[in-house]
What does this fold into?
Amino acid sequence: MRTMYKPFLLTVFALLISLQNPQVSFSQGGEADICSGDCMIVWSDEYAPDISDVYFDKDQFALDETAKDILKKNTEFLKNNPNIRLELQGHCDERGSNNENIILGKKRADLVKKYLISLGINPDRMNVISYGEEKPFCMLSNEACWKLNNRVHFRFPK
It folds into this structure.
């Protein structure tokens, strides 16, 4: 039965690689929602409509204008849902040492938290964690995958 999904997964992966500025579409119950426009599919037990991850260039933790726009949009959702707590997960690609990537992932997540605080989100609602290179979204070693892995992921713990 698993081989039946292989063509679908290969098609989805090809679409992911072609994205320049990926937007995350969360789904409920571990199933994928096919979304229109520039988005990527994430299998998740979490559900947070209108929330997007923030992406970074290699070895960087500065917020560019695209990242700031995403965080402003995320802030609207968070202000409209004041009881939601979130975990800001810092991620990196596999380039660099594990220790360097843990530090970089934390810097990224801390920066996102600081920016959300500046936009009026209560810091007590946010927890920061860095996974460095340990939980990649994409497993290939190429620029498209590295771009997907250099991110701060928004997770909403139960």
Remarks:
- Residues 98-118 form the longest helix (21 residues).
- The beta strands are 24-25, 40-41, 54-55, 86-91, 126-132, 151-155.
- The two ends are 31 Å apart (CA to CA).
